[in-house]
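User: Teach me something about this protein's shape.
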Amino acid sequence: MFQSSPISHVRRTNWLGRRRVQLLGAMLVAAVVPLAWRLFFTPEALWVSTFNAFWANVVAVVVAFWLRLSVEPYPGIRSSLVILPTCAVAHGLVLAFFFFTRLPYDRSAFIAGFVLHVAWFYLVYFLVQRRTILQIGVVPLGDWQKLETLEMINWIRLDGPSIELARRCDAIVADFSADLSPEWEGFLADAALTGLIVYQVKPLAESLTGRVEIDHLSENSFGSLVPARGYFHLKTVIDFFVALAALPVLLPVMLGAAIAILLDDGGPVFFRQRRIGHRGTPFHVLKFRTMRVDPGLSTGDARQAAMTGDLDPRITRVGAFLRKSRIDELPQAWNILKGEMSWIGPRPEAEVLSLWYVGEIPFYRYRHVVKPGITGWAQTNQGHVAEVEQIHHKLQYDFYYIKYFSPFLDLLIVFKTLKTMLTGFGAR
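Assistant: First, the predicted structure itself:
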């Protein structure tokens, strides 16, 4: 819903909502407080290790802050979701540094710094960020109506090119391809000079929805149809070593799943299916079997048999749990070790379904430009779909992932996948 200008009040930014205040506050509570505690209450325990812990906490605060700034601009993400993971990753990296260098550090001060670091940002979130709704001024020219359906922003339709009015908004958005008058063009330039962020309509809509909407590849705004090759090859190496390192942890879980499947109905443990992978190359995906064995399906509609509904009667009792927890996907670590899949990417579709989708949506095959993954952007935002109408919507999420292909987006997907595993949303 759009609000017409003029805005009834001038926005005043809460001082705690400023990035520099949050960063300095985190350094104060996570690094200075543990050091001050040692200075005033246990000065006899003040050693080099204490000061090493101080600098370790400072570095961890900076790294975690940088990680949050990198992933929070992506849509569908709340600060509350990334606070604990980013803090844990940052302090974990610093801890790894101490492990490999054997430098002494004050464990109590370091642990206290981590706890206070997390507590500080949750305090900021509950006091400020949770209640904040951005007000963005809209230049009502060109293709701006698409913003009307996006309800997470308070949209302010600007009646004229007024800098005074613009200063009351958090940002300005305009369709740069529209036939803007000299007055509006000058207004946008002045708004940028005052420090306001000026967005283009289409990228902003993509950022808020997490989807890239296109009808033909010739109409896209990808820039290049091939995603960053450097990260693509680096990611392949990371995938391999993460899968290798995870095997000791995954094997006991997979053994338990295999026993549960056998005890449930005595059928085969694994399910193999021919799917379409990177560059359209078919491969056989490996999963734990979660559905009953039904020989009659081989003589029926292959396309219908490949689809799985939310309440599919073929799903077993154990299978329902394995799907919700995503444990059924764990054998795909073997596909990752073989280089056929990644941990993160568009989900590989069954070959029969993929051929059908390509017939209905010709540019569907573009999603194969990156390796398929066990989890992905579409899965964490939309969940399981099968029909063509839903697939078109899901494809927009896949195109968003390809367009913004980066380690930061992958990191965000990891955070959202952990949430999915806890809530069950998107399980299939």
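Now, about its shape. Strands lie at 2-4, 135-138, 154-157, 171-174, 197-200, 270-276, 282-288, 342-344, 373-375. The chain has three domains: 15-131, 133-209, 229-423. If you'd like, I can walk through any region in more detail.
User: That's plenty for now, thanks!
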